[in-house]
């Protein structure tokens, strides 16, 4: 769980208990589990144009709606399943994002026939997190040349709806980059 009110955190998590728990327990921690990486990739694509807080509060509904982010199951979704997702008020009901999720599940399965999805992603940072040293939230970029490269490589591998800003948020969330501010207790813990 999270610590007392004296804990120094990145200011973006505010005072929302779910957001604080996400910051303290997940955000920026190196993640290598393929299914969880896929979950974050999909959730970040759904977040495009919305706040992460919105997605975080709908995360459990997303997990149920998308079969716990099983790429094998999602790749087989048919028109009836798409219609049920579009009718599901617990998730973001955006047809382009839903169709991209199905497409991305198929792309991930295709990629996994050649390499581990996790290893492929982490190869973009030589297998270890990049540690940034930001002093202020205004210093943190929305995307980087590396995020542009990874977004390009994902697109080349058949993924959709993943631009450099979305990909950089994914890299931050999964610990590929450590963007906790230097004043945050979690900067050194991750």
What would you report as the Rg, rounded to the nearest angstrom?
Answer: 17 Å
Low-confidence stretches: 1-6
CATH superfamily: Hypothetical protein, domain 2
**Biggest β-sheet: strands ordered side by side in the sheet:** 1-2
CATH architecture call: Orthogonal Bundle
Order of helices and strands: HHHHHHHEHHEH
**What gap, in angstroms, lies between the N and C termini?**
16 Å
Count of alpha/pi helices: 10
Could you characterize the architecture of this molecule?
With 190 residues, the protein is mainly alpha-helical. It has a single domain (30-189), classed as Endonuclease III, domain 1. 53% of the residues lie in helices and 2% in strands. The protein has a two-stranded parallel sheet. The protein is globular and about 50 Å long. Residues 1-6 have low confidence and may be disordered.
Characteristic terms for this protein:
mainly alpha, Endonuclease III, domain 1, two-stranded parallel ribbon, 190 residues
Write the layout of secondary structure elements.
Elements (H helix, E strand, L loop, with lengths): L16 H9 L8 H14 L4 H14 L5 H5 L3 H8 L8 H18 L4 H6 L7 E2 L13 H12 L7 H10 L3 E2 L7 H4 L1
Parallel strand pairs: 1-2
Helix pairs in contact: 2-3, 2-6, 2-9, 8-9
Task: Please sum up the structure shown.
By secondary structure, the chain is mainly alpha-helical.
């Amino acid at each position: 769980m999270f610590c007392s009110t004296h804990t120094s955190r990145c200011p973006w998590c505010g005072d929302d208990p779910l957001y604080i728990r996400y910051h303290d327990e997940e955000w920026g921690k190196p993640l290598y589990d393929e299914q969880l990486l896929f979950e974050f990739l999909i959730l970040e694509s759904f977040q495009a144009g919305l706040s992460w807080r919105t997605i975080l509060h709908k995360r459990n509904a997303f997990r149920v709606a998308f079969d716990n982010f099983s790429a094998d199951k999602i790749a087989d979704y048919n028109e009836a399943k798409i219609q049920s997702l579009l009718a599901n008020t617990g998730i973001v009901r955006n047809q382009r994002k839903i169709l991209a999720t199905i497409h991305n599940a198929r792309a991930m399965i295709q990629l996994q026939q050649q390499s581990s999805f996790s290893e492929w992603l982490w190869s973009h940072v030589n297998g270890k997190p990049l540690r940034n040293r930001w002093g202020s939230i205004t210093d943190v970029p929305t995307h980087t040349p590396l995020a542009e490269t990874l977004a390009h490589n994902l697109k080349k591998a058949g993924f959709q709806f993943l631009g450099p800003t979305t990909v950089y948020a994914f890299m931050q969330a999964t610990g590929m980059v450590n963007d906790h501010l230097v004043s945050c207790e979690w900067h050194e813990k991750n």
